[in-house]
Write a structure and sequence with these properties.
This protein is an alpha/beta fold. About 25% of the residues lie in helices and about 25% in strands. The longest helix is centred in the middle third of the chain and has 23 residues. The structure holds alpha-L-arabinofuranose.
């Protein structure tokens, strides 16, 4: 393949990459909570009943905002079922996934887990079967000083100080017909506005995410978002985007080109936010919160059949899925100016990078791009000029063979590169217009024998990141050759800012 030339200038910045873009999502679904993060019967359980092997692996992903308790689950969840003495909490028939919910894990357990993991809790209130007032009461429970009913309920469980939950979602996927309490846009907008007002009255410092369209294929795409934003107005700090992608037809080149469609979705949603802001002549605009995203198409087991912790949507991830996950992250970095929060759906067992089996733990292929980005997530996203061979995806349109994004962190430049070719290596040359390169500090590469290759308990390390030594830094440029179907993350140390002008004079 012909060489791809990538050129950048360190002054051409898109914006700071909000750490919350590297968030996760923990739903009471399948074995995500029970047998996932929480399993008092496991040999790995800590004093709180959390699985230390799962948490140790998750800590490598440096996750930030953690969305909880759903998902579809949230639209039938009454938060008061999950607080107070655990032995007195009700065992209930759960409405979204037809499972049994023991409520052994609830608000206090989740907050403790967040503190342990340094996650920012992000609560989704029930605007399906719940009321705006119930949503407001949860804010009081979490965030108000003791002295009134719900704050006292928290204090009675031992948490005398407020939890300070800063981020709240106004329901989940309310435009989806499958959603408990689904209503048309104008009705959701009224419900969301009522809840938002009362929630901010309880704690004016919180930030709110209004439900945007949950699937770009829905006929209400954009219209729903406009209606919601116009009605909820300045009470909405963010609007949500969801996207699950897959390769059901086995068209790998087009599947890998899906990044173009993700770029488009972000840009279209940003356009709605700007449109509403302009029409309202408001100083405030809503930013974007991609609060569910992942690959999900192979496993559609969604009926819990009245069980506790049933096996639901335990997707097995392969190499091409991992490259698509890297594609989402490229797109998020490229849109750092408008995308402020994103949550990988989900974190363990349910469409997740980690799978438990008894006391064993399997790290899936998608774990690696997440970890490679996470280690390099701090800094400002840079604009890149990419000049190289391109191809036409059958549905997603024309894309570069080499997908790229970059983050500048002081004198460190992090470069992320995906080679989408199934058969050819991609030579890449990076030129930095205003700075000299001192050295390549670290580089890893993720690749594998074929697109469908996946890790399993029998072969757990088939797909994993390895050191990438074939990176040359010479004549002020960085050169490398990406194997077919690979993702690389490079950390380049730049020479002091005056080194280039010194060399040139
Ligand atoms: O993540 C699984 C489910 O997908 C979530 O509960 C729902 O919001 C989405 O449809």
């Amino acid at each position: 393949m012909q060489r791809t030339r990538i050129t950048l200038h360190t002054d051409f910045r898109i914006g700071r990459v909000d750490p919350r873009v590297f968030g996760g999502f923990l739903e009471h679904m399948g074995r995500a909570v029970y047998e996932g993060v929480y399993d008092p019967n496991s040999a790995h359980a800590d004093a709180d009943g959390c699985r230390t092997d799962v948490l140790d692996a998750l800590s490598r992903l440096r996750m930030t905002a953690m969305r909880y308790p759903g998902g579809n689950f949230a639209s039938g969840y009454h938060w008061q079922d999950g607080v107070g003495p655990p032995e007195r909490r009700p065992r209930v028939r759960e409405l979204a996934w037809q499972s049994i919910e023991t409520n052994r894990f609830g608000t206090e357990e989740f907050i403790r887990l967040c503190r342990k993991m340094d996650w920012t809790p992000m609560m989704t209130v029930n605007l399906g079967t719940g009321s705006p007032e119930e949503a407001r009461d949860w804010v009081e429970y979490c965030n108000c000083p003791a002295g009134t009913r719900y704050a006292d309920l928290r204090a009675a469980s031992g948490a005398t100080e407020p939890h300070g939950v800063a981020l709240w979602c106004l329901g989940n996927e309310m435009d989806g017909k499958w959603q408990l309490g689904h209503v048309p846009a104008d009705q959701y907008a009224i419900r969301a506005q009522q809840a938002a007002k009362m929630m901010k009255d309880a704690d004016s410092s919180i930030e709110l995410v209004a439900c945007g369209t949950c699937a770009v294929q829905l006929p209400t795409y954009m219209e729903w978002d406009r209606t919601v934003l116009e009605h909820v107005g300045d009470l909405a700090d963010y609007i949500s985007l969801h996207r699950y992608v897959g390769n059901p037809g086995g068209d790998t080149p087009d599947y890998l080109a899906v990044t173009a469609a993700i770029d488009r979705q972000i840009e279209e949603m940003d356009a709605v936010c700007r449109y509403v802001q302009a029409r309202k002549r408001s100083k405030k605009r809503a930013y974007l919160c991609f609060d569910e995203w992942n690959v999900w198409y192979k496993n559609r087991d969604m009926d819990g059949e009245g069980k506790v912790a049933p096996h639901l949507i335990e997707e097995v991830y392969n190499l091409e899925d991992a490259l698509v996950v890297a594609g989402f992250l490229h797109s998020f970095v490229r849109h750092a100016d408008v995308l402020k929060i994103a949550n990988l759906a989900q974190i363990v067992n349910v469409i997740a990078p980690l799978i438990t089996r008894g006391d064993e733990l399997l790290v899936q292929s998608i774990f690696y791009p997440l970890a490679m980005f996470a280690q390099r997530r701090d800094g400002e996203a840079l604009r890149l000029a990419v000049d190289g061979p391109r191809y036409e995806g059958s549905g997603n349109g024309e894309v570069d063979y080499v997908d790229a994004s970059a983050i500048l962190d002081g004198d460190r430049l992090h470069l992320f590169l995906t080679n989408r070719s199934l058969t050819e290596s991609a030579p890449v040359a990076l030129g930095i217009a205003d700075r000299a390169v001192a050295a390549c500090e670290a580089a890893e590469i993720l690749t594998g024998p074929e697109p469908k290759a996946a890790n399993s308990f029998a072969e757990p390390e088939l797909i994993r990141a390895r050191a990438f030594s074939a990176v040359a830094t010479e004549d002020g440029a960085v050169r490398c050759e990406l194997p077919p179907l690979s993702f690389a993350a490079l950390t380049i140390r730049l020479a002091p800012a005056d080194a280039l002008s010194g060399a040139r004079s």
